[in-house]
Design a protein that fits this description.
By secondary structure, the protein is an all-alpha fold. It has a domain of 53 residues. 54% of the residues lie in helices and 0% in strands. The chain has five helices and no strands.
């Protein structure tokens, strides 16, 4: 058994600068997910650049706002690898031609209203349980 305990590690981790704490958290999550090893080894997969290495698990996505060109390149690579085979395109398949035109602001306002109503209904359920 090790002489190291959780409280000691926590106290030491709290002394690290924020970017180092993020790297530590990210590294631990990688190990839990079985995706990689420790950042000090130089193996940084799936970290794609220094931006991730500095910020760590503060950002869950493995890609940060990829450009259109990066997405097209990744799609081409997947097609070349035979990942897509004879897959039916879903483009427009579930589009509703009767859906009203809506600006981004209107969509966000509607989503906010729905979320607010949902939260109020949940709050009502909580008060009934007491």
């Amino acid at each position: 058994m090790s002489d190291v305990n959780y409280d000691d590690v926590l106290k030491l981790a709290e002394q690290l600068p924020e970017n180092e704490q993020n790297r530590l958290i990210y590294n631990l999550r990688l190990k839990q997910a079985g995706r990689g090893t420790h950042l000090a080894t130089g193996i940084t997969e799936p970290i794609h650049d220094e931006w991730y290495a500095e910020r760590g698990s503060e950002y869950v996505e493995y890609y940060r706002n990829p450009t259109r060109e990066e997405l097209i390149e990744e799609l081409d690579n997947l097609r070349e690898a035979g990942t897509f085979g004879n897959v039916e395109s879903l483009y427009g398949k579930y589009a509703n031609p009767n859906a009203p035109e809506m600006s981004a602001e209107e969509l966000h306002a509607d989503l906010h209203a729905i979320a607010t109503t949902w939260e109020q209904e949940l709050d009502d359920l909580d008060t009934n349980d007491d």
